[in-house]
């Protein structure tokens, strides 16, 4: 459903988006053909317009099934040009929906599967970004992210690679993948090795409130990928509120992965009304049939967010973005400009 003019113009921020999760089915087919691969059609659903994956109907099982499809889709990528193209393609689409800033979750492990070193992957992503920025002014930062189910030793390698190859746009370290694999403590060495100023971690989507608590206590994060299942434990909610926690809420992801069956069950509105510093993310937009614009639209249509409240969500995201203060101030001015309309 297209965004109405006012929603289209509202400045949006996507703080939670996995780069390989932005590949469109059309792009997957294009890359498969360009790279001489035959298997892209197997990734696609019968409509040819979405990806398909096998999942049982538990949140944990759905995530694991999805992650297999995600890795398979990455399999159509073979070159630096492919990384540049998917980056540009995503940022162009996001900017066209009013997105002024995105934080891309990037994965040295996936770059390696494509056949690129971490510096080669960063260089390719930056080329795609430069082109998109020249056209639309969109800004980005990147979160170098370890994949939990690849294990703590691999995560530590990602931490070290991140540390040894500093890049001005890589400002944070993160943890994604199967939320139920290993423990948070197993990954602290990876965060320590990366030694970046900012941290986030997936917790409280496929796993329950106790992982939110351990992400906070063990990894010392204040920003959380998802966090929605914190709602199941009043004590965890109070603890999160006490640190002014920042949830990166991805409604369509939660629905697609079966965490909630209906919007009415989803805690987005409860989080906002409890005074949590809510932000929105598209997570893996082409897999979950969404976009950052659509996430704002869902917040409006299904959770009653007014334009002013959505603008507050964008302001929250910029206030908590993993950027330098000059860039933050510049982005806040873009939000203020909309308010002044
Ligand atoms: N959740 C966890 N890990 C991921 C995801 C996700 O949606 N996408 C890519 N890695
Ligand atoms: Zn995610």
Question: In words, what does this structure look like?
Answer:
This protein has 341 residues and is α/β, with parallel strands linked by helices. The chain has one domain (5-339): TIM Barrel. Helix content is 49%, strand content 14%. It has 15 helices and eight strands. It has helices at 5-9, 25-34, 59-74, 80-96, 108-114, 118-136, 152-164, 188-194, 209-219, 234-242, 251-256, 268-273, 292-303, 307-319, 325-339; strands at 12-18, 99-106, 139-147, 170-176, 198-203, 223-226, 246-249, 279-280. Zinc ion (ZN) binds next to strand 1.
- Tell me about the largest β-sheet: 8 strands, parallel
What bound compounds does this protein have? Answer: hypoxanthine, zinc ion
Strand order of the largest sheet: 1-2-3-4-5-6-7-8
The CATH homologous superfamily name equals Metal-dependent hydrolases
Q: Remind me, CATH topology?
A: TIM Barrel
What percent of residues are in strands?
Answer: 5-15%
Gap between N and C termini: 25 Å
CATH class: Alpha Beta
Number of domains: 1
Question: Got a strand count?
Answer: 8
Low-confidence stretches: none
Average residue-wise pLDDT: 95
Helix content: 40-55%
Radius of gyration: 18 Å
- General shape: globular
CATH architecture annotation name: Alpha-Beta Barrel
Order of helices and strands: HEHHHEHHEHEHEHEHEHHEHHH
């Amino acid at each position: 459903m297209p965004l109405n003019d006012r929603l289209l113009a509202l400045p949006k921020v996507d703080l939670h988006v996995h780069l390989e999760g932005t590949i469109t089915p059309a792009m997957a087919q294009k890359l498969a053909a360009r790279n001489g691969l035959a298997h892209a059609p197997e990734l696609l659903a019968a409509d040819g317009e979405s990806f398909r994956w096998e999942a049982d109907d538990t949140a944990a099982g759905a995530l694991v099934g999805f992650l297999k499809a995600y890795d398979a889709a990455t399999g159509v990528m073979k070159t630096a040009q492919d990384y540049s193209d998917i980056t540009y393609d995503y940022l162009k689409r996001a900017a066209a929906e009013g997105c002024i800033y995105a934080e891309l979750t990037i994965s040295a492990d996936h770059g390696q599967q494509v056949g690129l070193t971490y510096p080669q992957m960063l260089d390719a992503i930056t080329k795609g970004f430069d082109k998109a920025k020249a056209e639309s002014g969109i800004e980005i930062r990147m979160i170098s992210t370890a994949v939990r189910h690849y294990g703590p030793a691999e995560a530590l390698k990602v931490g070290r690679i991140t540390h040894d190859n500093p890049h001005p746009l890589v400002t944070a370290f993160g943890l994604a993948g199967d939320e139920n694999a290993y423990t948070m403590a197993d990954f602290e060495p990876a965060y320590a090795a990366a030694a970046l100023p900012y941290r986030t971690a997936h917790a409280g989507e496929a796993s329950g409130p106790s992982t939110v608590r351990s992400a906070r206590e063990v990894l010392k994060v204040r920003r959380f990928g998802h966090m929605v299942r914190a709602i199941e434990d009043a004590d965890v909610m109070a603890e999160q509120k006490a640190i002014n926690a920042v949830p990166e809420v991805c409604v369509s992801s939660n629905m697609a992965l079966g965490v909630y069956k209906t919007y009415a069950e989803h805690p987005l509105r409860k989080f906002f009304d409890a005074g949590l510093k809510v932000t929105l993310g598209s997570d893996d937009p082409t897999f979950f049939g969404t976009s950052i614009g659509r996430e704002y639209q869902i917040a409006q249509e299904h959770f009653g967010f007014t334009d002013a409240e959505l603008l507050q969500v964008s302001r929250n995201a910029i206030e908590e973005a993993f950027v330098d203060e000059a860039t933050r101030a510049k982005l806040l001015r873009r939000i203020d400009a909309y308010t002044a309309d």
